[in-house]
Write a structure and sequence with these properties.
Largest sheet of chain B: none
Shape of chain B: globular
CATH topology of the largest domain in chain A: Rossmann fold
Number of strands of chain A: 15
Oligomer: heterodimer
Distance between the termini of chain A: 46 Å
CATH class of the largest domain in chain A: Alpha Beta
Number of strands of chain B: 0
CATH superfamily of the largest domain in chain A: P-loop containing nucleotide triphosphate hydrolases
Order of helices and strands of chain A: EEEHEEHEHHHEHEHEEHHHEHHEEHHEHE
Number of domains of chain A: 2
Strand content of chain B: under 5%
Strand content of chain A: 15-25%
Strand order of the largest sheet of chain A: 6-7-8-3-9-10
Helix content of chain A: 40-55%
Shape of chain A: globular
Largest interface: A-B, 20 and 14 residues
Structural class of chain B: mainly alpha
Radius of gyration of chain A: 23 Å
Number of helices of chain B: 9
Structural class of chain A: alpha/beta
Chain lengths: 403, 266
């Protein structure tokens, strides 16, 4: 396996008699999004502050590409710090600076870029984060959600290599929350930075993370890929995940991934016991990234939400649809074979008017909105994983609308 | 036996307190040195220094003029009624001018600036500390002492002598108002005594005092705010305590250093 970019080795930290970190071992790999989850007050933010050097461990070590911070010269430490960006839980915006000045601060202080270039970069980030007409406002004059987005813009304006997010979506409404998640994921794919996110947003954070670590009682209780944590047998991990999972997805209002997966298992059991067939349709909304770039992340999340709503309105009461991924919806159709599932798709396609989904955004003229559908019929001998794989593999365009 | 233990405890706690105080003084001195040296790091923070001069200097003008005028007026009245007993009311100009230039000007200016700008400095930096804004600066690799403290030190070093000079001038006119306009001393005599009695050494002494007070005030106020998080009390209470101790400590230290400086300068 590759050398981890950041590695905690038996790191311990205590404040008075309170042992916040008690021998933490954790690896963070380059170019991945690692999410740190855990109950409130378990030291997730403290862990994050160790990465950037705001705290030093009392015992153990934090290594960067195998080298301890303690062994680095001050120049090496500074060079390392410049690779980082940190988004604080409470935004930590400078209240004596305007929104524009806050975002421009790292560029003004750390670089010698011309003013016009700084202005271009700041405006670019503000546009992407849907921050309009608030340049001259002070942080105390804007809402909590807006502050989060300003803090996010400030963290990303320097195009950092490693970004640490301390609960980036707390206090945001579902559309904005998903917009922030999709933005983190989108930027991460585009710029390839390494991200560490401290979050409570389960399962949303599973959609965008490659690795998950759960911190409990000062130790890492689980470290691995999102699929594994959802199947973890450790009761503490299981209780924590299930306790936070809502039966409904916040953004779309349809069932959440976890309850959808449970329904799939039930259908599988019914098939094996009573030979009742069922089919699944995996609907993937395509080119949402293009929409992000043209109209912003909020617009793309709104479109996805409207599409989910359309699917929900067109299914029968016995059917289920649930959010499968950032831009994917799965429909479970009991008592249905592949042909009937295809007919259902055609009906869904006939009733859909893409223009209605995006009607508010006139600037999208020429944009092609398309949805792919992958249909798979379950057989008695099929396994759930292969069924999902089949649906993923047989993706055909089922709907296309050029605006 | 019990008495021995009590006195031992007393001595050890006294020793502890002294050691802590010396350590704290050392930390404060290092804090100032860092802040002062960082003023000259390129690029110079001209805009921030200007903003701080506006805040510390410009915005204190009214209060300095007001207190200067009334201090001069009181000195005029008090001086007149003392001098009239000896028939030497002509010396009022000297008395008012020397008192103001040597003592009252630098001390009262410094105390007024502590009340107006020093408390605000401690509270502002304290709030930045508890709301993680200082941590945010560190994560951006922006030196918080250079960003927050250095411009304030530079601005105080520029503003304090100018404010003191203004206080002195307004005070001398205040003395003229009561001494000459109200109580009838010859204005020519008053101003000629002012001119003849104030030496360059008096002005230099006052100037040195104002510089030292600037250092004391800005260092104590910024230090208290900057290290708000190390207090036992957190949050708003921590900030309020930092502000209070910034004001009290600054005022006490102004008076102590004034005594020390006077004994060296005279």
């Amino acid at each position: 396996m590759n050398l981890p970019l950041i590695q905690f080795k038996d790191a311990a930290k205590h404040f008075g008699h309170n042992f916040v970190l008690d021998g933490v071992n954790l690896s963070i790999f380059k170019g991945e999004i690692t999410a740190i989850i855990g109950k409130s007050g378990t030291g997730k933010s403290v862990l994050l502050k160790h990465i950037i050097g705001l705290f030093e461990p009392d015992a153990g070590d934090v290594l960067y590409e195998g080298k301890s911070l303690r062994d680095m010269s001050s120049n090496e430490k500074r060079a390392l710090k410049r690779k980082f960006s940190y988004m604080f839980q409470d935004s930590a915006l400078f209240d004596f600076l305007t929104v524009y000045e806050n975002i421009a601060l790292p560029l003004n202080e750390r670089t010698s870029l011309p003013e016009a270039e700084i202005q271009r970069r700041v405006r670019d980030k503000m546009h992407q984060l849907d921050l309009h007409k608030i340049d001259d406002k002070y942080p105390s004059q804007i809402s909590g959600g807006m502050k989060k987005r300003v803090a996010l813009a400030r963290a990303l304006v320097t195009d950092p290599e490693i970004v640490l997010f301390d609960e980036p979506t707390t206090g945001l409404d579902p559309i904005r929350k998903n917009a922030v998640h999709s933005m983190i994921s989108d930027y991460q794919k585009r710029f390839g930075f390494t991200a560490v996110i401290v979050s409570h947003e389960i399962p949303d954070v599973f959609f965008i993370s490659q690795r998950i670590a759960m911190l409990d009682n000062g130790k890492i209780l689980f470290e691995g890929i999102p699929d594994d944590i959802q199947r973890a047998s450790d009761p503490a991990v299981k209780n924590f995940i299930q306790g936070l999972e809502s039966p409904h997805d916040d953004l779309t209002g349809i069932a959440s991934q976890a309850s959808g997966q449970r329904r799939l298992k039930q259908e599988m059991n019914r098939l094996q016991r009573h030979k009742i067939p069922f089919s699944i349709i995996l609907l993937s909304v395509e080119k949402l990234e293009d929409l992000d770039r043209i109209a912003g992340h909020m617009a793309s999340q709104t479109v996805f939400k409207s599409f989910a709503n359309h699917v929900k309105q067109n299914i029968y009461i016995t059917d289920t649809c649930f959010r499968y991924d950032m831009n994917k919806i799965m429909v479970v159709l009991p008592d249905t074979d592949a042909n009937q599932a295809e007919m259902f798709c055609q009906k869904l396609s006939r009733n859909l008017d893409g223009n209605l989904l995006i009607e508010e955004h006139e600037s999208l003229h020429g944009f092609c909105f398309s949805v792919n559908a992958g249909i798979a019929q379950a057989r008695e001998d099929s396994r759930l994983e292969s069924l999902l794989g089949e649906a993923e593999d047989t993706q055909n365009i089922f709907y296309e609308c050029r605006l | 036996m019990a008495q021995l233990v009590t006195s031992k405890n007393f001595v050890s706690s006294l020793g502890n307190h002294t050691i802590n105080m010396v350590l704290e003084l050392g930390r404060i001195a290092l804090f100032f040195i860092k802040g002062f040296v960082l003023i000259f790091y390129m690029p110079l923070q001209i805009l921030k220094i200007k903003q701080q001069i506006y805040f510390i200097g410009m915005k204190s003008l009214f209060v300095i003029c007001l207190t200067g005028a009334f201090t001069g007026m009181v000195l005029g009245i008090q001086g007149y009624y003392v001098l009239v007993k000896y028939g030497s009311t002509g010396a009022l100009g000297s008395a008012v001018a020397l008192t103001l230039v040597r003592e009252m000007g630098p001390v009262l200016t410094a105390i007024m600036v502590v009340a107006r700008a020093g408390s605000a400095m401690a509270a502002e930096i304290g709030i930045m500390r508890i709301s993680e804004q200082i941590d945010a600066l560190e994560t951006m690799d922006i030196n918080p002492i250079r960003f927050l403290v250095s411009p304030r030190i530079a601005a105080a070093l520029i503003s304090f002598p100018l404010l003191t000079a203004l206080f002195d001038v307004v005070g001398i006119f205040g003395g003229y108002m009561t001494g000459s306009v109200l109580l009838g001393i010859n204005p020519g005599l008053y101003f000629s005594r002012v001119e003849s009695s104030v030496d360059m050494s008096d002005v230099t002494g006052g100037f040195i005092k104002s510089i030292v007070f600037a250092i004391v005030v800005v260092t104590i106020c910024c230090y208290q705010g900057y290290f708000t998080h190390t207090r036992a009390e957190f949050g708003a209470k921590g900030v309020s305590l930092s502000t209070t101790s910034a004001v009290v400590l600054s005022c006490v230290l102004i008076l102590i250093t004034d005594y020390v400086l006077t004994s060296f300068l005279l």
